[in-house]
Amino acid sequence: MNKILAVVIFAFFALGPLAAAVGDIQILKRQREEFLNENCQVGSTCDLKRIDYLVEDYRVELQEGPNYGTRMYAKYETDNVESLTEYVFVQFIKGCMFTSRVVGNQIINSLDIGRYLYRNSEKEPAVIFKHPDWEIDSPDRDPVYYSISGSDRHSNYRWNTEPNSFLDETEKYFGQEIPEEPKLYIRDRPGTAFYARDKAINVSLYFRLCLYKAKDVPVEPGIINTKPIHCFRWESSFVYDHEAGKFEYPYEIAPVCKSP
User: Fold this and answer.
1) Average pLDDT score over residue span 223-227
2) Which is it for strands 246-248 and 230-241: parallel, antiparallel or unpaired?
């Protein structure tokens, strides 16, 4: 049987004003999970050793005020470098980003946040950041997460010269340089939430990140008929409470995200 080990470290602070300098980052919550591929004979995946996940909710101080966001890292390890390209991540998304403000005595929610990467060209308007139902989170036709049409599916996967690090300063792209250790990772940082000029930018998103055999994921959009090796659920939720004057982090998707 495969083993899944999860550790959640809660370090919640009041999401109101704190004495902090511009650029300071506070970790509000940290979650780690690891998947050990011990039942590998079933899916003929014995060259895959493990998958590690790290999710952090954070607050960053900017000139216009604090921003709240989530960052996710997912890393897989194989028994040799050649096997790294045998596996791909596919991410599914549900929820939305939206604005809210008080007009009179009523809170008005608006779906007016765009996803610019989801346009077919720069001349087109941004696609509204709304996913009422689960769908593949990919801006191009290939379902593989962070792939780019016309290039190798793993070109944007990353590795780090520092063991167990995700720091930008020491990371490399697989498409530019092959790692010595058989480890690759991806990362995601959905949009941030903040309040400014009497308007709140809110984040209410669910994600399901799955690792598949690369050959089981079609390059063109379509149904993925094969069961994933493992899936990991994570979320990013920061919704402004206009009455309390602070951000909350509800678990449920905001009702406005489900509107037609």
Assistant:
1) 88
2) antiparallel
* Cβ contacts of 241-245, under 8 Å, gap ≥ 24: 242/100, 242/101, 242/102, 242/107, 242/200, 245/16
**Percent share of the chain, pLDDT over 90:** 74
Structure tokens at 108: 């008005």
Report strand pairing: 25-36 vs 3-10.
antiparallel
pLDDT at 116 over 80: no
Distance CA 39, CA 50 (A): 11
202 has pLDDT over 50 = yes
pTM of the predicted structure, to 2 decimals: 0.89
Whether 126 shows a pLDDT value over 60: the answer reads yes
Which residue carries 């709240």 as its tokens?
A: 68
Q: Which residue has the tokens 């493992």?
A: 230
- Name residues whose C-beta falls within 8 Å of residue 37's C-beta, 6 or more positions apart in sequence: 2, 45, 46, 48, 49, 50, 51, 229, 230
What is the overall mean pLDDT for the chain?
90
How do 127-128 and 130-136 pair as beta strands?
A: unpaired
pLDDT reported for residue 123: 64
H helix and E strand count, the chain: 0, 16
- DSSP labels, 125-139: PPEESEEEEEEE--S
Query: What token pair was written down for 134?
Result: 């689960």
Distances (CA, A) of 117 to 28, 120, 217: 28, 8, 22
**Beta partners for residue 50, in sequence order:** 36, 77
